[in-house]
């Protein structure tokens, strides 16, 4: 049990509990990776981790590096009656954004193992990176200029130039490096940061299945975290499938996490008062969906997390509007970088007073995918006229058109 001792809050200190379990081994043997993970890792760094060994008779210790569901490296540690060994290797770009180190050995008739997960700085391979350069002599609408994409020869690049106003309400659709690497990290077959009560659970949490002539893997090879995620996803789909239209929207609202930790009944009373007798089915759908998901809100699996898993948040993001045309799009094309390690695109600025966001995603045949840092291009005039024209008029109709003059210059 842990308790704070802040003198400002006498008699009202925060209390936390942590239960630690020992590793189960019938021979009282173990392999233990050093839990000190203060080192910030990046490609090119030398990785070093201590493996504590008990008893000293354990030999033939192996280590394995796993990333994104693939075995990146596997080697054998040196033999010797020692209390600890060193796991050493070089961090490569294949290990971005995270990897797991699994050590294992056979002692008497028992398999021993330990594992840890490590995060690596989210950077692309230098040969997969692309940069964007813009060159416009004049930033007025309609001005001519060029955009240069720098990168390795034969790299395929997808270009997108879009009005920044599209992202005014939400930047959830803005493609970034972090989003790409987060998608890569979902290929991790493991669960948690490492460790386990016994060898079976430890290997399962590391996303590893090991089968030998003396060791058979457990029949249930799915980890506890994948089972929980699957159960939540199934429940979500089952609940939503029974509603449609407005009732479905009300159901989604009922599933949302309440930051005030109110009960479903109290939240439903608020909805009823707000609706003032209208949409009776909405309040019922809200309550039913809230009650269905309430057990997951209180699940201590991930403290402080909501019912909706991180990788499913996009399903529940409410789109305030949907645009079917692409008038906000300036550039939308694929290119291949030329032999000079660059590609020049000649074009003109659209006739809009706005800021354009230029994005590029590169795909290398050897080094994979990478996203360039977005580049902004401001299309602007010091003085311009804006007309609020109605979307339609009929012949001989008398209308009023409001004209607004914007003057950002120094003269009136």
Automatic annotation (TrEMBL):
InterPro entries: A2M/Complement_sys (IPR050473), A2M_N_BRD (IPR011625), Anaphylatoxin/fibulin (IPR000020), Anaphylatoxin_comp_syst (IPR018081), Ig-like_fold (IPR013783), Macroglobln_a2 (IPR001599)
UniProt xrefs under Pfam families: A2M, A2M_BRD, ANATO
Anaphylatoxin-like domain sequence ranges: 250-290
Record keywords: Disulfide bond, Secreted
Predominant location: secreted
GO cellular component term, pick one: extracellular region
Stated name of the protein: Complement C3
């Amino acid at each position: 049990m842990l308790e704070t001792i802040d003198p400002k809050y006498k008699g009202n200190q925060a209390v936390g509990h942590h239960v630690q379990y020992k590793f189960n081994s019938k021979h009282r043997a173990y392999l233990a990776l050093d839990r000190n993970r203060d080192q910030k890792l990046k490609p090119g760094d030398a990785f070093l981790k201590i493996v504590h060994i008990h008893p000293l008779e354990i030999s033939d210790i192996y280590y394995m590096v796993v990333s994104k569901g693939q075995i990146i490296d596997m080697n054998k540690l040196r033999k010797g009656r020692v209390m600890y060994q060193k796991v050493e290797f070089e961090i490569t770009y294949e290990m971005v954004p995270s990897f797991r180190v699994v050590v294992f050995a056979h002692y008497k008739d028992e398999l021993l193992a330990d594992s840890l997960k490590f995060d690596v700085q989210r950077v692309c391979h230098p040969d997969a990176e692309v940069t964007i350069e813009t060159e416009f002599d004049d930033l007025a609408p309609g001005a001519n200029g060029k955009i240069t994409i720098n990168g390795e020869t034969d790299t395929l690049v997808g270009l997108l130039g879009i009005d920044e106003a599209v992202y005014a309400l939400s930047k959830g659709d803005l493609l970034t490096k972090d989003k790409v690497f987060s998608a890569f990290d979902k290929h991790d077959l493991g669960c948690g940061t490492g460790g386990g009560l016994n060898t079976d659970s430890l290997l399962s949490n590391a996303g590893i299945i090991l089968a030998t002539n003396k060791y058979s893997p457990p029949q249930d090879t799915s980890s506890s975290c994948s089972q929980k995620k699957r159960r939540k996803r199934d429940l979500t789909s089952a609940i939503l499938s029974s509603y449609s239209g407005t009732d479905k929207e009300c159901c989604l609202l009922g599933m949302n996490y309440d930051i005030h930790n109110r009960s479903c009944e109290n939240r439903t009373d608020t909805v009823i008062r707000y609706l003032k007798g209208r949409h009776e089915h909405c309040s019922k759908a809200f309550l039913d969906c809230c009650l269905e998901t309430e057990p997951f809100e209180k699940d201590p699996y991930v403290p402080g997390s909501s019912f909706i898993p991180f990788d499913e948040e996009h399903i529940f993001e409410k789109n305030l509007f949907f645009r079917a045309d692409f008038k906000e799009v300036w550039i939308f094309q694929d290119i291949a970088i030329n032999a000079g390690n660059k590609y020049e695109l000649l074009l003109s600025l659209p006739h809009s007073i706005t800021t354009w966001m230029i994005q590029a995603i590169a795909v290398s045949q050897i080094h994979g995918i990478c996203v360039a840092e977005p580049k902004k291009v401001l299309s602007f005039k010091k003085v311009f006229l804006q007309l609020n024209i109605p979307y339609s008029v009929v012949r001989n109709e008398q209308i009023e058109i409001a004209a607004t003059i914007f003057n950002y210059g120094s003269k009136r």
